[in-house]
Amino acid sequence: MNVIETHGLTKHYNKGKIKALTNVSLTVPQGQIFSLLGPNGAGKTTLIKLLLTIVFPTSGSAKLLGKDISDYTSHFKLGYLAENHRFPEFLTARQVLYYYGKMSGVEKAKLDVKIPQLLELVNLGDWGDTKIRKFSKGMLQRMGIAQALTNDPELLFLDEPTDGIDPVGRREIRDLLQELRNQGKTIFLNSHLLSEVERISDSVAILKHGELIRQGTVEDFISIKKQYLLQIAEGNETLKNICKTNEIPLISQNGHFIVSVHDDAHLNHLIDRLREKEIVIQGITPRKISLEDFFIDVIEEKAEVV
Ligand SMILES: Nc1ncnc2c1ncn2[C@@H]1O[C@H](COP(=O)(O)OP(=O)(O)O)[C@@H](O)[C@H]1O
Ligand SMILES: [Mg+2]
Questions:
Q1: Rounded distance, CA 25 to CA 1, Å?
Q2: Could you tell me the pTM of the whole model?
């Protein structure tokens, strides 16, 4: 089952001058960690706000847990960690969780049992009676995740949960998210850092200037490990066609071509097809690539995905 479905979701501000999100259609299956990636300003927060009806779409529609987003009854099954959230600093960690739990409609008796468990889960078991003002950024983010879990949601929205946190804190959050997925929850994660989420995400979508430019499983992205810079004398169109039929991603950059292949056999298959068409190959140079580089290539204007 898909827990999130959007159809042509669009949000334009200022009479269309600011295109925060344009025609986004995506689906998120149950039980996954789904990461929405893109640079700052790409429209990630806007998408979450639309799904939670904090803002309303210019056009398009969406469903959460099988119901149209206008049906608020599904909100009781959702958890939300807002970007740059602020808790009242004069409250203790425990008081914050009661406060948010009550706002989510959870009875006090249930919270009495749940809150100590949540504090343990996010590694703040010894900090329940400490005031929020004493907390580090990493502790505040973990509090934010605990807050989003008070109503035991099926679907969690986390907007930049690791932003501004040191590497140890980030790792703790990644471990926590995996544990929540193992409990069967679906997690929708926004991040501007690919390296942060690539290790834990089941599927990934990339937004750029409000448009969805890539969507797939992490394997789809990770399988693109080997890249070669290919120089050919002529036959650009033939190369494009061969890559298309053989599902070899091709990027054109500064007059050169970059092909992405799984392994040497895959590369040689491409060479055979090119030679069959009598394309003269002038050079093939291996190019080191990380998933991060690939992400940046796709995001930056300099690389055109053919
Ligand atoms: N309330 C608003 N009014 C006008 N423009 C907005 C508003 N909210 C967001 N935007 C603009 O929409 C674009 C997408 O923003 P946002 O969704 O916050 O991006 P991200 O979360 O990917 O950084 C940005 O250009 C931002 O300035
Ligand atoms: Mg944002």
A1: 16
A2: 0.80
